[in-house]
Amino acid sequence: MPAHLPPRPSARSAVPPFRVMEILADVERLRAAGRDVVSLCAGEPSGGAPGPVAQAAARVHARNEGLGYTPALGIEQLRRAVAGHYARWYGLDVRPEDVAITTGASGALVLTFLAAFDAGDRVAVCRPGYPAYRNTLAALGAEVVELDCGAATRFQPTPGMLDAEVAAHGPLQGLVVAGPANPTGTVLEPAELAALARWCAEHGTRLISDEIYHGIVHTAPEGGAARDGEPYRGTSAWELDRDAVVISSFSKYWGMTGWRLGWALLPRDLAAAVDALAGNLSLCPPAAAQQAAVEAFTADAYAEADRAVEQFARSRNLLLDALPALRWGEVAPADGAFYLYADLGEQLERHGSSLAWCRRLLEAEAVAVVPGLDFDAARGHRAVRLSFAAGPDRVAEAVTRILRFQARP
Ligand code: PMP
């Protein structure tokens, strides 16, 4: 009889745990015990979907029609509406067939990584950066190359970093960038993104640009101009290079996190592969959400989303105004998105690590923030990420409590 080994989880599934999960479990415990927890953890706007989208969803559900499977890359009406969004925000000519509707930006990332990379391909990401890039790439068998992006380059990569990496370890098949970025909120200047796109074109490297925080820009970067009455929304990689993959979502600007709807703009060589993969992986994105999301591209919905962005800006100002009193160390510029990423500075001498600081802050003052280790395994033990998506009142309350916590003997 051959000896059979017991079944086991795959090695590829061993992605590192999120520290934020420990904090969130503590948040639930404190809330169950009746404490008023101010949570600055989740990157999640609290206002819900714009009214026109919510009303359309109610109509769609009441009609109860067209809610079967849709085409794998989404309904034609929504693909057309997303294409129109690129004309409106960027003056770009995008065809509906360039657009793949996906289950959030998360779904777009998985499909793109699968379609663009083979096991063993080397794909560069920023550190600090959004953990799902490296964890998903690693689970798919890619070799993740973390580029140390510090304050000197506003936590964004440069062609010089890519040259050094290639010289030291060989070619890169992919580069993932984000602007505004999570957790730092830093924006890519148009010239910086252009230089990265040029570098990728010259080196046969696939550029993947996560533009999920476009539209949430508080300080336009150098060279980032308003156009045709639109404020600066971000620079899209498709303004520079149609071989890039652009990733975006309804989750952040429109506040539709749980609707699980996003999209990718696909270069022509990847479209058929993504179509086949999407059909196999998830059949299609959610049908009701797709029908309702068409309304996200109406003037009323844009106006409502822009009002939410104004609230984020107010919350951001509250935090920035509190920085002198907080006496933390280096703080990322937070030019976009709704995150403040900060080195805890002298607080570290008292608490040892940002995880310990976060835990004690939560116990003492019921304020929840995320330790930096999730975003940066090398230096994240010094840093915290505060999400200011929750609204100015909650952010003001959090500031009061954090100052009280830090003033304790
Ligand atoms: N990219 C970035 C940078 C994010 O911060 C997030 C969500 N936190 C996502 C992608 C995924 O968003 P979703 O799947 O909800 O569209």
UniProtKB/TrEMBL annotation:
<feature type="domain" description="Aminotransferase class I/classII large">
    <location>
        <begin position="36"/>
        <end position="399"/>
    </location>
</feature>
<dbReference type="GO" id="GO:0008483">
    <property type="term" value="F:transaminase activity"/>
</dbReference>
<keyword id="KW-0808">Transferase</keyword>
<protein>
    <recommendedName>
        <fullName>Aminotransferase</fullName>
        <ecNumber>2.6.1.-</ecNumber>
    </recommendedName>
</protein>
<comment type="similarity">
    <text>Belongs to the class-I pyridoxal-phosphate-dependent aminotransferase family.</text>
</comment>
<dbReference type="InterPro" id="IPR004838">
    <property type="entry name" value="NHTrfase_class1_PyrdxlP-BS"/>
</dbReference>
<dbReference type="InterPro" id="IPR004839">
    <property type="entry name" value="Aminotransferase_I/II_large"/>
</dbReference>
<keyword id="KW-0663">Pyridoxal phosphate</keyword>
<keyword id="KW-0032">Aminotransferase</keyword>
<dbReference type="InterPro" id="IPR015424">
    <property type="entry name" value="PyrdxlP-dep_Trfase"/>
</dbReference>
<dbReference type="InterPro" id="IPR050596">
    <property type="entry name" value="AspAT/PAT-like"/>
</dbReference>
<dbReference type="Pfam" id="PF00155">
    <property type="entry name" value="Aminotran_1_2"/>
</dbReference>
<dbReference type="InterPro" id="IPR015421">
    <property type="entry name" value="PyrdxlP-dep_Trfase_major"/>
</dbReference>
